[in-house]
Structure formats: structure tokens, C-alpha cells
Amino acid sequence: xxxxxxxxxxxxxxxxxxxxxxxxxxxxxxxxxxxxxxxxxxxxxxxxxxxxxxxxxxxxxxxxxxxxxxxxxxxxxxxxxxxxxxxxxxxxxxxxxxxxxxxxxxxxxxxxxxxxxxxxxxxxxxxxxxxxxxxxxxxxxxxxxxxxxxxxxxxxxxxxxxxxxxxxxxxxxxxxxxxxxxxxxxxxxxxxxxxx
Length: 196
Ligand code: SAM
Prior knowledge:
Elements: H1 3-13, H2 21-33, E1 38-42, H3 48-54, E2 61-66, H4 69-81, E3 88-92, E4 104-109, H5 116-123, E5 127-135, H6 153-171, E6 175-180, E7 186-191
Parallel strand pairs: 1-2, 1-4, 2-3, 4-5
Antiparallel strand pairs: 5-7, 6-7
The chain binds S-adenosylmethionine.
């Protein structure tokens, strides 16, 4: 089995959450079609999605941030095992504590759902002129559409936060968002062009 499928299997076996196949292929197509070169990812886990992004093209650079030390260490190992150390930089810490001067063509928000609005506000000035936010898990296993699928208090709280983020995106006057029922629910948010 090749390296990347071993990483995916490891994630599935150890219950590390990673992006779903069809959500991922949507994002990979976006990277190819829009000539995305510089990516910021919030939520590395063990590096699966960032490795897939970097494998699109040797010109792609990925900055990715992970809060959990064990996952961070596993991600660094996986990146090196795939010989992608030149393309991917893994940062350890809370994404809210990072500041970048760079302008990203794509910011993939795949970290803690309760903080999606904070990440959006924090990093919106780090987008390149045609840059986009891509957010994952907006369906949260169908629970966002149907809250009766869970009776767990903390899950209900989380789902309500995701609903709040969706509302925030819908009401946003600065960014226009398209929602896709792909994977676990993906959105693409692009800065609105100022009309003269
Ligand atoms: N993007 C990964 C992939 O598809 O391979 C999956 C990321 S997983 C859904 C979300 C990750 O965000 C978890 O590993 C979690 O530890 C991390 N995380 C949680 N809070 C964070 C924070 N404040 N800053 C950075 N990462 C965080």
C-alpha cells in the first residue's frame, strides 16, 4: 500500500477525523482549476489533507496548524515520509494564536467547529485577491439539517454552533458563499467584488 493510503487507514483505525473522499476530491479539483499555490489549513490532524493538497502540484505550498501534540508529531513524520517537507510546514498550537503576513489562495477551515467564525474573522485579511475560504463539516453527519439525529448535549451544542456559522456566512455582506452537499458539507466563500 502506498504511503498516503497507509496514512488514511491509520486515521480510520485510530478514529482521527479526516476529510471525506468526495469533499477532498472537490477541494483537489478546486486547487487544480484555480491554480491555487499557497494554502493555509486550520486543523492538520495527522497531515492527510495537507499531503493530498501538496501532491496536486510541486508548486503548491501548505501551512497547516494543529493543536494536539501527538497529532502534530505524527503529521510531521507523515509529511517527511512522503518527502513533502519542502512544500508543507506544520505548526503546533492554537490557530487563533498565529499571525501570518502571507496572502493565501485558499484557507481550509477544518478545525474546532465552535470557532469557525473566529477563524474566518481572524484570517480574512490573509486572502489573496481571488482567495477563498473552504469550510468542511457544515452538515456534521446530517445533524445540521436534522438535529433529532442526536440526543447528546455537547453534540447538540456543536451543531448549533455550525448552524450559527452557516447563518453568519449567509448574512455576510463582505463574502459570498456557495454551499455544496458534498462529503460532510463544504462551502466556498469568496470576497464580493465592490460594484462601482
Ligand atoms: N484536515 C485534516 C484532514 O482532513 O486530514 C483533519 C482535521 S480534524 C477534522 C481537526 C483537527 O483540528 C484536530 O486534529 C484537532 O486536534 C485540531 N484542532 C482543534 N482545535 C484546534 C485549534 N484551536 N487550532 C488548531 N488545530 C486545532
